[in-house]
UniProtKB/TrEMBL annotation:
PANTHER family according to UniProt: PKSB, RETINOL DEHYDROGENASE 10
Main localization, broad class: membrane
Family per record: Belongs to the short-chain dehydrogenases/reductases (SDR) family.
Cross-referenced InterPro entries: NAD(P)-bd_dom_sf (IPR036291), Sc_DH/Rdtase_CS (IPR020904), SDR_fam (IPR002347)
Organism: Mytilus coruscus (Sea mussel)
Transmembrane segments: 7-24
SUPFAM superfamilies (UniProt xref): NAD(P)-binding Rossmann-fold domains
GO molecular function: all-trans-retinol dehydrogenase (NADP+) activity
Gene Ontology CC entries for this record: lipid droplet; membrane
Protein name as catalogued: Short-chain dehydrogenase/reductase 3
Entry keyword set: Lipid metabolism, Membrane, NADP, Oxidoreductase, Transmembrane, Transmembrane helix
Entry-linked PROSITE patterns: ADH_SHORT
Function comment: Catalyzes the reduction of all-trans-retinal to all-trans-retinol in the presence of NADPH.
Origin organism lineage: Eukaryota, Metazoa, Spiralia, Lophotrochozoa, Mollusca
């Protein structure tokens, strides 16, 4: 049995040098970023590609020479994105898919593999937001929020990650928001679904590494995109540009704007009451958008 002193010596000799190495590596990476990888010719699936952030990400990836596969429940919008990409001289294939339906996902994935090939980069962008007081939200709306924003990630990853594992190459992108880092009033269901998506991403990253897969120099198999409020502050194209950059540089966390990372870290140093005061003072959040009398589901 090793004595306490022997364990302490082991800790000092093994762990501190490794900790020092990782600090030096992080500093070097911050000032001398790795060379961006090429995504030209890569098959990229973007869910929710018919509008907003998804559309802009698809367009930006096409400009980098990627072959796009577009999923959306809205056929007209999805085809519009595909047409715009083709007008650039790039490749785009559009499918009408409801990401809450596993049979729909599996059937379309099989067709994709036959007609296009295996997915190299998966962008889980499809999302839904009702924006209302929790007690007034319908059960169907809460369930759909989790089905689209969280559970759909399980189904797409289970469908497309096996080929990535086999090739020991690939990239999975999760589009989230600041609400995944700071719960927000009138977004209780949305914030919870994005928190869950973050947990999914973090656990999956560790699991991939446990399986012995190293898809990049810095071991990042995924990118988790955390952006500030889109439209009031950011534009979808701002998010798209940073997301594609994150993919090309194998960034594990992509904060948009980049100062958001620092802001969240600094805020974490303050007491919770003061954090809430800052959010209220800065008028962060949304106003209720949900109509409890709506018959839509």
């Amino acid at each position: 049995m090793a004595t306490v002193v022997e364990k302490l010596i082991f800790f000092v000799c093994i762990f501190f040098p490794r900790l020092f190495y990782y600090y030096i590596d992080a500093i070097i990476s911050a000032f001398i970023p790795a060379k961006p990888k090429s995504i030209a010719g890569k098959i990229v699936l973007v869910t929710g590609a018919g509008h907003g952030i998804g559309k802009e990400i698809a367009l930006e990836l096409a400009r980098k020479g990627a072959k796009l596969v577009l999923w959306d429940v809205n056929k007209a919008n999805n085809e519009e994105t595909a047409t715009e990409i083709r007008s650039m001289g790039e490749s785009a294939t559009a499918f009408v898919v409801d990401v809450t339906k596993t049979d729909d996902i599996h059937k379309t994935a099989e067709q994709m593999r036959r007609e296009v090939g295996d997915v190299d980069i998966l962008v889980n962008n499809a999302g839904i937001l009702y924006g209302g007081e929790l007690l007034k939200l319908k059960e169907a709306h809460i369930r759909r929020t989790f089905e689209v924003n969280t559970l759909a990630h399980f189904w797409t990853v289970k469908e497309f990650m096996p080929a990535m594992l086999e090739k020991n190459s690939g990239h999975i992108v999760t589009i989230a928001s600041m609400s995944a880092k700071s719960g927000t009033a009138y977004l209780v269901d949305y914030s919870a679904s994005k928190y869950a998506a973050y947990g999914f991403t973090e656990a999956l990253q560790e699991e991939i590494l446990k399986l012995g897969k190293r898809w990049s120099k810095n071991y990042n198999c995924q990118s988790y995109v955390c952006c500030y409020w889109v439209y009031p502050i950011l534009k979808p194209k701002d998010v798209a540009l940073e997301t594609v950059k994150g993919i090309m540089y194998d960034q594990e966390f992509v904060y948009i704007p980049r100062s958001l990372n620092i802001s969240l870290r600094v805020a974490g140093l303050f007491p919770r009451k003061f954090q809430r005061f800052l959010k209220a003072f800065a008028e962060q959040g949304i106003k209720p958008q949900y109509d409890p009398h709506s018959k839509s589901d």
